[in-house]
Amino acid sequence: MVSRVILFAATTGYQIRAFDHAATRLGIELQIASDNCEQLDDPWRDRAIAVRFHDPVSSLRALDDAFLERTADGVIAVGDRPAVLAAYAARRFGLRWHPPDAVECSRHKLKTRQRFRDAGLATPAFEAVEDGVSRATAVARSEHLLPAVVKAVSLSGSRGVIRADTREELAAALTRVRHLLDSHDVRVLRDPEASTIVVEQFIEGREYAIEAVMDRGRLHVIALFDKPDPLDGPFFEETIYAAPSRASGSDQAAIVAAIERAVRALGLTHGPVHGECRLGPSGVTVLEVAARPIGGLCAKAVTVVDRQGQRGSLEELLLRHAIGEDISGWRPNEQGSAVMMVPIPAEGVYRGVEGMDSAQHVRHVTDVRITAKADQLLTPLPEGATYLGFIFARAASAEDAERAVREAHAKLQFRIDRALPLV
Question: pLDDT tens-digit profile of 99-146?
Fold first, then answer.
């Protein structure tokens, strides 16, 4: 019988197609569960089950109806909120996956901090700012943390994340993040946790990201990425991930050990994990661990190799794991790889890009993917939630791959018209 996996993903997720292609290659039936409109007849032509990530009760009923005759063999999720529903679905259908409580905790920056602190992990001092607390009171409670980072607790990536070095900057950052949380595109998510802000001490150091799978309670590392561009604020827009890491062997071991302790503190047990940390004078500080794979098209920068030297994509590995295959023989690819998430330089209306041909012909560049659409209104961080696109490279070393994506980016000229203010 053909194995079946449920993929929980937002309709706007970049990775849906990659998982679909991987499932086809492996002969796995992929059933998508997404936030489609249930009133329309398959609007995206993906035969998806319509679910609501803010309403697990009704979503589980929809899944029960869809799987009356035969349930799935595994689940996968793309994105923080879909991962929560995947956890509830796995528990409903008796499938291996992270526990719902652990996944809920991992997507909430304040709960994560509290869990790490209670487990004795290195974590920055922090304060919670609930909705309704005045700005003056919030500043008074949090100024001892300066220099600090103000964060929206349940937004993903670096959205709603601002550094503040002074009382004035702290007040301005709190106002700006609160305004973002009150915006329509955040409120429409119907996230009951979205109103909380956390203020935490800024941690010095270089950032790293780790891609791994918890396999029956054991951490299986897939990739360790350097983030070569400093992420010191005032905003924290990520640009380049490069692998394999150029950190020393002892530093890499310390990073993996810290991530594993954080994973266990959260209670994640089985499924993908994506961790972020800083390595500085005081050692490794884990910033977050998500119960999902790396986001967006960045997964294209990850490949794995089995014992026979066969290459596979991240999506293929996760699908194999979801249906219960042994993945212990798969290891990180030692070839150099890099991805650049092309930043949005300024707010405005996207009109197009020049230099694509030159960028695509840079040595070692494997793909240049512009995801912005013509006439799209672009908003940079910390309010924005997208990139202009992605640049990928593969080479003999991480240095060469990183150099290639930088060179390709330099050849691109984006046309962005300044947005007219509303009167």
Answer: 999 999 999 999 999 999 999 999 999 999 999 899 999 999 999 999
With beta carbons less than 8 A apart as the criterion, state whether 108 and 153 touch. Answer: yes
Q: Provide the CA 308 distance to its chain's centre, in angstroms.
A: 31
- Helix (H) / strand (E) element for 113: namely helix 109-118
Check: CB of residue 108 under 8 Å from CB of residue 193: yes
Query: Whole-angstrom Cα distance, residue 384 to residue 397?
Result: 32
What Rg value do the Cα atoms of the chain yield, rounded?
21
CATH classification (class only), 125-201 = alpha beta
Domain 4-104 has CATH 3.40.50.20: yes
Amino acid at 104: E
Please calculate the CA angle 83-86-88 and round it to the nearest 5 degrees.
115
Helix (H), strand (E) at residue 94: none
Alpha carbons within 13 angstroms on the beta-carbon side of residue 409 total 22
The pTM (predicted TM-score) of the whole model is 0.93
Q: Is the pLDDT of residue 177 over 90?
A: yes
What are the strands of the beta sheet with 377-378, ordered from one edge? 377-378, 348-354, 413-417
| Burial (Cβ within 10 Å: 0-12, 13-18, ≥19) of residue 1 | exposed
**Cα separations in angstroms, 176 against 64, 137, 148:** 42, 16, 15
Domain boundaries 336-423, corresponding CATH code? 3.30.470.20
Show the DSSP H helices in 194-344 as ranges. 249-266, 314-322
Sheet arrangement for strand 4-9: 49-50, 29-34, 4-9, 74-78
Can you give the residue ranges of every domain in the chain?
4-104, 125-201, 336-423
Distance CA 373, CA 336 (A): 30
